[in-house]
Design goal:
Length: 392
Amino acid sequence: MGEVEKAHKLVAERKLQKAEPALLAKLLISGSLNNLAKAHSCCFNHDKSDTLFELALNVGMGFTTTAAITNARATEQLSQLGIPRVASHNAATLFTPDIGFFLQSSINYFAENASIQLALAEHFQQAEQYNNAIVHWQQVSALLDKNTPQPYYDRLKEAYKLGKGFPQGTVEQESLTGDIDKHKLLSDIHARLKPEFYFEIGVQTGKSLALAKCEAIGVDPMPLLSTPLGPNAKVITSSSDAFFSNQSDFLLQKKLDLVFIDGMHLFEYALRDFINVEHFSHSKTIIIVDDIYPGHHDQASRNRCTKAWTGDVWKLHAVLKKYRPDLVIKTIDAYPTGLMLITGLNSENTVLNDNYSQIIDDFVRDIPVPPAYINRIDAVSGMKLDFAEILS
């Protein structure tokens, strides 16, 4: 009857009479048969399980049981294991849990768990819900940081290709401004600076890399090239972190003249990219960082929810102003999401690297983007940029 403790107490307290040892022996044998029956159910040997349940009852009770009693006993015993009762004449019911529902429920409690984010990303990828997959693949990258394996970027690239564009937000959410197109401005900078060695993080279609007329290297873990590149340009399929760990000393043997950073739209990635690139700079190198000005606070979210997405790259500007007052920084009112131009670099400076952990603790969280960045308060007109001043 399920009153196990009471049964134990009765057996323990009583001195067995002449007939009772035989009864106890039968109960123990019955229990063993009962456990064997449950074991066979776990292995889907349902017919064998039913036979053993029936035998267990027959031994224990001393007479032949009915099918109804055997069925009731089997149902009760299997329920203890969480196994549904499957009669011998019925086929097992296929259990198809809503994995996405359970994973999304768990994310409320384990949002910082990379394994849960990875499972959700792959779930949505296989369900062909590519926009949801993109969000979670990017969360995986944020959580695994510089340790993100290349295959995860490959899956993110596939999601971007198959998703055919992130869903459009409202007109206000997708607001973009600027007095000069960024590619026009980059082209002007190439023409004025005449770099001999150009380096780019975040190649995507190749539109900006194609502007280089000199030796050029672009690094991207998921390039989607659609623009013809110059004969001296090469693309390295790699995350920037992996590139600087494994390939930079070999491929960047010359100092960089002009650099464009447009990689993962997360602050910590942009910070590491700047630190790594400055190490290969000289006193006249110019670094340009994209996505410094979100057009709406939703565009600046670390979790993408709009087609136009800058992420929290704006924080790099705030960090450089605080930790590197020696740099010359101009933020430019370029379309669509602004540019930050940086000169006065010092390849020997280690301030950012030395304070990296503290900077991450202070900035890698959802800090509301200040209105000054959305309204481009300190932006310099891209149409009126004083190249002579910059180059001097």
